[in-house]
Structure formats: structure tokens, C-alpha cells
Amino acid sequence: MEKTEKKSLFDKPLFATRIKSASVSLFPEAGLGYLLGPILALLCNGVINIWLVQYWDKVLMLGDWNPLFETLLPIVSAVFVIIGNLVVGKLMERKPSLAGKARPLILLGMPLVAVALLALFIVPLPQGNGGLGTFSNLWASVIIAIGYNLYYAIAWPIYYTSHSALVNLSTRDGSKRGLLSTCVMAAQLGASGLSGMAGGLLVDLIGLLPKYQYGVDANNKPLVTSILKTAQDYVNKHGGEIKTLISPEQANSKWTILMIIMICCLVVGCLLEYYFTRERITEENVKNLAVKEDKEDAAATKISMKEQISICVKDKYWWLIIVFFFLYQFGGQMKNNDLSFYSQAMTKDGGTTLSSLINTVGAIPTALGMVIVWPIAHKLSKSKTISLGGFLAFIGGLLAFIALIPSVSDNAAAVSAVSVTAFIVKALGTAPAMYISLALMANVLDHQEAVTGKRTDGFTMAVYGSIMVAMAGVCNGIIVGIHSLVKNSIADPNDALKIVHTVLGFGVEAVCYLIMGIMFLFMNVEKFTKEDNEKILARQKADCEARGEAWIDPQTRMKMEEEENKRQIEEARIADLKARCEKKGLDFATEEKKYQDKKAADAAKKEAFMNKFKKKKK
Q: Which of 52-56, 70-74, 204-208, 414-418 has the least mean pLDDT?
């Protein structure tokens, strides 16, 4: 009796990818699916990673009434984050449909992330908030813990792990995969940069953090801070009064409004990423290997998580790329999440404008890096380019310590100049790691498939996602823990905080990149790329012929499907035109000629433009 296979919801036309081409295109696939969509979707996470601890510390004043909880919550919750990512990795290994392994999870994660974003910022002001709040400290802590884990351990892993897998599953074409990797990392960087650039300005402009005015400086200018204790200590020592410019209650309400805006960006971004991406490698496996009617064959084809773990732990290249991502994310999150604290420590007004300046100017070399990294990588290899960049980033991190020299630290303009210069040098050095690391990880996964006949996307992306998501919380816990310890244990902590946040914001990442630079001198997986692709195709061909089916290589089959799709679209257009002509009493031949003439004219304009562009380029 013939089985009727139950179709997935994502096999319905409504959920079909809008990308029909056999090969990756710059637009709309790369432009919308891998750049604009992810920028909008990741924007909310950039805001959360950088500003959540500031919200806890300044608005809820969590560090004053429960500093141990503020420090340990992100660190302890990392366990739940890792479990969440492993579960998502397991979900990705369910029987895939033509929609893919990862793409459906992007849509499923979207509403969960939206709910979690609101949950992070619905905390009423607690009693510990300088006596201004009335809500129970205990229940405030419970709500904070639930919101944090709902976001980082459940909602965000569903989106982020599947989002991260798309480059590996998009194509086997190394150059196209490099393009998509560059777009994804540019999106991640762009979202983080926008969060830092706009965040620092918005905090001061619309009042996302409390602001207190107290006393005057040597130039008779008002002293302003977002830390109530700083103002209270000054008044207790020098007299005067504290004027509240923005209250914690006012700041608290504005975060909810900001999150609603972030949710709108998230929805648009997820829809763009879902509809304008395509998992060509998953489609290969579905059509060549994974679709088995016989249960025994299906079981033989399925790769368990245990098998994937066994393959990964024995692969030295896998360990190199995973340790790389650990260092990359640890250093990067320490820099990103500490930058607002660094700005507050290094400036006399305790504001966050310096962090916005650093992010804004630093975006220029980072964008430049996107252009120059791949030509260098094609000459030297991806791993060697990352290695050289790591050494340059180390030098850039060391430059920041010049701002601690007394003659420099007392001059606001000099501090800004040194900080920005250090960030620029470091940004140039970090560019290779940002833009080509995902493509290098895809090389590692392809090599595993060539050697073992099995892919480990599920486990690998679960580990990758755990690192990328959990590290934000771990770094925030380290930053707020050290910050609170120094702030609460030293009578005048200003100079100590300058040193602490220079180390946390610049020094930690510099050391991470030095280690990565040394480590990647031994990463040579790229030399197997051509051989790996040949082995994978040969295995697919042998399996296909063993089933008694005619072998068509994936690229040819995709081109055939593309032509068939074009034919169906053309047939549908002609049918629609005939129906319109019949309804309105028009002549079909005349209307068809108008269409064909316009099509020819548009093609001629496009050709003329391209010829003109080529001449200018020459």
C-alpha cells in the first residue's frame, strides 16, 4: 500500500521562498535575505546586549539593592542558554522539508522574541530604587529573571541559531558563500553599530536613563550623572542639593515604547530573511538522500546528535573554529557591552556620547574592511587573513591605554582622540574575523561531510549559537560585577573605574585577538575545498545510481528548476492577460505586442547602462 506523506505547513505556497534562482544573486537574495533582513532583526538584540545592564543598574538600581543577583543572573543563566541552543540544534535535525532546516524556525521564533522583548522591560520600580519605587524587591527580581531567561534561553536561540545556519546551507559555491557570509557579518556588525551609535545619543536625547544634576565643576558648569549614588556622595561631601532632570519612573516608561519600535523592526526583518533566503544544500539532501519511503532507509540516513558530537570532537579544525568563535564573541561582547561604562568613566559629565562617537567613527574602517578583506583572503587564504587581522587588533587595543596617562586623561578632547584612534586600528584588525569567519566554518562542515558522509549543522550551530547568545550575558555579568565591586568598595572610584573599563573595553578583546592570530596560523582546512566538493558530489552520484535513479548534479538540476519556474510564470502571465483581454474586450495580440515591446525596451536600457558602467570602470 502506497504511503501518503504528510506535508509540512512550510511546504504550502504561502511559505515558499521567493528565491527561485539556482545560484546566489546579489539582489534580492544577498541584499534582502542576508543583509537588510538580519540588520532589522538583530537590531533589538544589539540594544539588549549593550543597554539592558544599564537599565538594571541606572533605572532599577539593581546593583545597589541586589548586586550579587545582578552579577550572577547572566552568568548562571548561561547554563539555560546552552540547553536552549542544544534543543534548537536538535529541532534543526528533524526531517527537513524543501523549506529547509533553519528557515522555518526563523518564523516560529519571531513571536517569541517579540513577547520576550516586552518581558525584559515591564519591571515596576522596586522599593530598592532609592526609595522611589513601591514594588517588592523579591518580585522585581523574579520578573527580571523570568524575562531574561525567556529572551536569552528560549526566544533568541530559536531565531539566532537558525539564522546563523543559513550561510552554511545556502550553497556550495565558495565565492557566493563568501558573499553571503560578508553580508551576514555586516548585518550583525551594522545592528550592533547602530545600537551603539544611536543608543548613546538616544539615551541622552530622549532620556532612557535617569539624570541628576549636582554641584558645578571648576568652570562653573553643572555636574550631571545617571548614577544617583555619585550625586549623593558629592552632596554629602560638598553640600548642595540634587536636582532630578529625568526620574527613574520617566526613564522606565520610555523603554517599553522603544521595545515596541524594536518589535516592528524584528517582524519586518524576520519576514525578509525568511522569504529571501534559500537552503540549496538542504534541498540537495532532501532530493538525493533524505527522502526515503522505507523506514529502515530513513533511519540509516538520519544523523543522530550523538553521531554529530562524535564527529566534531575528533575534528581538530572543528575545535579551532569553535575556540575562535568563543574568543571572538567574548572579546567582542566585552568591548560592546562595556563601551557605555567606558564612556561614563572617561568623561566628566558621565554621559554616553563618547560611546556614540567611537561607534560612529569606528564604523568607517569596519565598512572599509568589508571591501578589502575578501581580495586579501583570496590571495592569502581566509585563515591567514584573520590571523594578520588579529595581530593588528591587538596593537589597536594597546593604544587605548594611552588615555590613562594623567596628561591625557585630564583632557576630554585627547581622551576622545585616543579612544577613537585605538578603536579605528582595532576595527581594521577585527574586520577579517567579522566578515569571513562564517565562510571558514562552512569549509569545516563541508570537510566533515566529505570525510564522514555526514553533516553536523545541528550540533555545530547549537554550540555556535550557545557561544554567541550566552556570551552576552556572561560578559554583562562580569562587567556589572567588577563595576559594582569597584564603585561600592572605593571612596572615590573615578580613577579606578577608568582603568577597569579600559581593560574591560579594550584590553580583553586585544588579548583575545592575539590568541586568535596565533591559533589560526595552524588552520589550513581550505586546502581541502576542491577535493571535498568532488567527494561529496561523487557520493551523491553513487547513492543516486544505487537507487536506480538517473543522476543530475545539483547545479544542473537547480538550473532546470529555475527554467521550469520561469516557464510556469510566463504561462500564468499569458493566462492572466488573456482573461483581462476577454473581460475588457481587448485584442490579445495587440496587448501582448505592447508587453513584448516594453520588455525589449527595458532590456535595451539595461544593456546600455551596463555598457556605460563598464566603460567608466575601464
A: 204-208
Question: Which of the four pLDDT bands, split at 50, 70 and 90, describes residue 299?
Answer: very low
Cβ atoms of 435 and 55 within 8 Å: the answer is no
Q: What is the DSSP string of 23-84?
A: S--IIIIIIIIIIIHHHHHHHHHHHHHHHHHHIIIIIS-HHHH-HHHHHHHHHHHHHHHHHH
Give the three cell numbers for residue 160.
539566532
Find the helix or strand (DSSP H, E) in which 604 lies.
helix 588-617
Report d(CA 111, CA 113) in Å as an integer.
Answer: 5
Q: If you search the block for the grid coordinates 537507487, which residue do you land on? A: 547
Which residue in this structure is represented by grid cell 550623572?
225
- Give the containing element (helix H, strand E) for 216: strand 211-216
Task: Tell which residue, 176, 192, 207, 368, has the closest CA to residue 281.
Answer: 176
How large is the angle between the packed helices 156-170 and 174-202, nearest 10 degrees? 150
Q: Going by C-beta distance under 8 Å and a sequence separation of 6 or more, which residues neighbour residue 520?
A: 320, 324, 383, 384, 386, 387, 390
What single DSSP character describes residue 506?
I
Confidence check: pLDDT of 5 > 60: no
Strands of 211-216's sheet in order across: 222-225, 211-216, 242-246
Contact, 507 vs 109, CB < 8 A? no
Where is 212: in which H helix or E strand? strand 211-216
Mean pLDDT of 593-609: 87
Give residue for cell 538584540: 45
Residue 615 pLDDT more than 60? yes
Cα 130 from Cα 329, distance rounded (Å): 35
CA-closest candidate to residue 17, choices 272, 187, 267, 264: 272
Integer angstrom CA distances of residue 564 from 124, 519, 571, 588: 58, 48, 11, 24
135, 443 contact by CB (below 8 A): no
8 A C-beta contact, residue 223 and residue 213: yes
Whether 85 and 154 have beta carbons less than 8 Å apart is answered as: no
For 548, the grid coordinates are 536506480
Q: Peptide bond preceding 124: is omega within 30 degrees of 0, i.e. cis?
A: no
Alpha-carbon torsion (49, 54, 60, 61), positive or negative: positive
- Rounded CA gap, 37 and 305, in Å? 30
Count CB neighbours of 417 within 10 A: 14
* Chain-centre distance for alpha carbon 352: 23
pTM of the model: 0.71
**386: phi then psi, degrees, rounded to nearest 5:** -60, -40
Helix (H) or strand (E) holding 156: helix 156-170
CA separation for the pair 149, 196 (Å, rounded): 23
Cβ-count burial of 217 within 10 angstroms (0-12 exposed, 13-18 middle, 19+ buried)?
Answer: exposed
Residue 214 belongs to what H/E stretch?
strand 211-216
